[in-house]
Design brief:
The chain has one domain: Cyclic phosphodiesterase (Cyclic Phosphodiesterase, Chain: A). The protein contains four helices and nine strands. The strands form two sheets. Strands 2-6-5-4-7 form a five-stranded antiparallel sheet, with helices on one face. It binds ligand 3AM. Ligand 3AM binds next to strand 3.
Length: 181
Amino acid sequence: MIRLFVGLELPEDIRLALTGIFGGVPGADWEPTENLHLTLRFIGEISEGDAEDMHDALMRVRAPGFALTLSGVGHFSTGDELRVLWAGVEKSEPLLQLQRNIESALVRAGSPPEGRRFRPHVTLARCAGVSVLRAQGYFAHHALFRAGPFDVDRFTLFSSHRRTDGAIYTPEADYLLPLPA
Ligand code: 3AM
């Protein structure tokens, strides 16, 4: 079995810019720099055979490359408790189109449909037992954060190995997106 997701790798300078806004929320567990990515579609734990089918489906996705800019910060929370601190993405129709193409390719190949709305973000930190109120200063301070634009000329199939000290994400395959000339 292998745990997979589809996402965008981020260029080194963008990941460094993101680490520049790490810190300032007591109790937040900041991501290792090498883990910073944008998830397009979580696939989950599947057999090696099914993984081959997903890879074949992803190879057939056709979409153009585009430029993307990270913008602002936000959070996912449950009630008053923070779960995830993230950097946002400037509105991008090509990104949404790419995500839709990937979703339908994977569903055609047998992956159960993702029920949740796609909310593009880059996870900066995971939190447990941290009140949203404790991050208000962080949100105010980094509201104008921007990084990019950078070219998105591929998307990536990652495997995820969860360990007690965090997850290890490994790029397994890239799928090229032609950039306009
Ligand atoms: O991009 P982020 O870090 O927000 O939260 C997990 C991570 O997203 C998400 O997949 C990415 C790579 O692990 N993830 C984990 N389990 C999930 C699930 N059951 C999930 N997304 C949806 N459903």
